[in-house]
């Protein structure tokens, strides 16, 4: 049975939207949404191959390698898998939440190309910030602007959010040094906020992240599982039926947890290449871990501001004039688009950037209109070195 409480106010879509949604069914007095969630490991990373030694940026970004050609291919294949193997009755995927590390960003963009959905970058699903980062604490991955320049060049057909700094990156960098246990709890907690908020907004969601994150989330959905090998481009697809509203009262229902016996049961399908062992002795420990997770006030304070309670309520895209993007990224000459503001309305950092960006959009639009008449708006889009330590899986 779902562990639910009455919400103080209606959140997400209204009654008419919910009752007419293709992914919603009526069971007695409850409207139930069939949600799909996919968690994907990035594709093959360049530093796992001999080609890394000749990569010109390897010393500048030792912890942020790009994908290999095989990595790009594998990520596209994941996109086709998610497109064609959606669990029966589940709503199609509508948004991708991705780690900002380049290997994940490129993987997410390859998947987004296939599914034609936007990408949101979130530091909270980023790499374990362990001892391997001791010499790269200040620059673990590319900045918003640096990542934007790469994506503008290589993925001009993928939708993503931009702000005054470059691509929108929500979430925060973990505190150094982060242990495997701390990182797994971060992954599990963040996945819960993403999944729960997506369900509130009637969304199915893809999370593109790292091997330990995939394992951490899967093992709370199926507590007897032990994922012992997670290759590049591995994934799992999970589906559940979650109660979202009472028909009689039109009152929203809100979950306390997406894991465990009090949450809707997950059907989980693992990638054929993932090696999984079943050990029922793990269940009690995982239940204790879940109880600890649910009362972790420190994580709630640190990650809540960047959750997706309202962030993914709308997947519509606002088209932006070419001149606006040129103002943000002067070395690029593409036309792009950004996710609408309602996707980020609950993030105070994003609100600040959106205020700045709206001002710039207005100024550029006014300038362009006065000099060239009404401009035509075009649709355009942009959107682990191995950790050989006991802190995580051998190859992240």
Automatic annotation (TrEMBL):
Signal peptide: none annotated. Residues 365-382 have a biased composition (Polar residues). Pfam families: His_Phos_1. It comes from the Eukaryota. Residues 385-396 have a biased composition (Basic and acidic residues). This is Uncharacterized protein. PANTHER family: UBIQUITIN-ASSOCIATED AND SH3 DOMAIN-CONTAINING BA-RELATED. Residues 365-396 are annotated as: Disordered. It comes from Noctiluca scintillans (Sea sparkle).
């Amino acid at each position: 049975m779902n562990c639910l409480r009455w919400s103080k106010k209606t959140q997400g879509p209204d009654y008419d939207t919910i009752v007419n949604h293709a992914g919603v069914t009526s069971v007695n007095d409850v409207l139930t949404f069939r949600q799909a969630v996919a968690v994907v490991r990035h594709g093959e990373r360049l530093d796992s191959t001999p080609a890394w030694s000749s990569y010109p940026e390897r010393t500048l970004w030792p912890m942020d390698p790009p994908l290999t050609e095989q990595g790009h291919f594998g990520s596209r294949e994941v996109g086709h898998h998610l497109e064609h193997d959606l669990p029966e009755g589940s709503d199609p995927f509508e948004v991708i939440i991705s780690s900002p590390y380049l290997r994940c960003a490129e993987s997410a963009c390859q998947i987004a190309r296939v599914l034609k959905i936007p990408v949101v970058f979130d530091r909270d699903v980023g790499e374990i910030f362990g001892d391997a980062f001791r010499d790269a604490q200040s620059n673990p991955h590319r900045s918003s602007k640096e990542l934007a320049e790469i994506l503008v060049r290589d993925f001009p057909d993928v939708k993503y959010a931009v702000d005054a700094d470059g691509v929108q990156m929500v979430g925060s960098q973990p505190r150094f040094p982060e242990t495997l246990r701390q990182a797994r709890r971060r992954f599990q907690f963040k996945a819960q906020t993403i999944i729960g908020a997506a369900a509130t907004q009637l969304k199915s969601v893809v999370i593109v992240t790292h091997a330990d994150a995939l394992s951490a989330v899967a093992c709370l959905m199926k507590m007897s599982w032990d994922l012992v090998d997670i290759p590049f481009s591995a994934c799992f697809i999970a589906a559940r039926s979650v109660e979202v509203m009472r028909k009689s009262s039109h009152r929203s229902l809100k979950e306390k947890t997406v894991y465990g016996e009090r949450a809707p049961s997950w059907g989980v399908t693992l990638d054929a290449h993932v090696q999984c062992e079943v050990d029922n002795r793990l269940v009690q420990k995982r239940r204790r871990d879940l109880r600890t997770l649910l009362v972790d006030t420190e994580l709630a304070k640190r990650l809540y501001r960047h959750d997706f309670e309202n962030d993914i309520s709308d997947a519509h895209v606002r088209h932006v004039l070419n001149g606006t993007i040129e103002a943000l990224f002067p070395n690029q000459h593409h036309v792009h688009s950004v996710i609408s503001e309602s996707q980020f309305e609950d993030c105070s950092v994003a609100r600040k950037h959106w205020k700045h960006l709206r001002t710039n959009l207005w100024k550029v639009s006014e300038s362009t209109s006065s000099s060239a008449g009404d401009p035509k708006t075009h649709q355009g889009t942009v959107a682990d070195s191995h950790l050989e330590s006991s802190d995580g899986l051998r190859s992240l």
